[in-house]
Fold this sequence. Notes:
The protein is mainly β. It is built from no helices and 11 strands.
Amino acid sequence: QVQLVESGGGLVQAGGSLRLSCAASGSISRLNFMGWYRQAPGKQRELVATFSSGGRTSYSGSLKGRVTISRDNAKNTVYLQMNSLKPEDTAVYYCAAKEYGSGEYNYWGQGTTVTVSS
């Protein structure tokens, strides 16, 4: 089993920045990908960024170009640096992890709320 705990959400003004953290514990050697998703009120969950065990990153959605995913292996933590935030970035942000051989993300954090005020 893997446990994921997000932190770093909060209230920020438009144009501001936030860094989210996701601390992983448990059987992390099983993990091939870690990623960040978000779900805005009334909308479907969408993928924001991923980080593979090989160090590859990918980005998608409207945050692309304004977000950077990174990893600190010593701390078993993945970060999501978000810049130039807009009110439409308001959402619950979830950390997720996928095991080797899995087609879907197996583990999810509880989510951290980001609110961007105009």
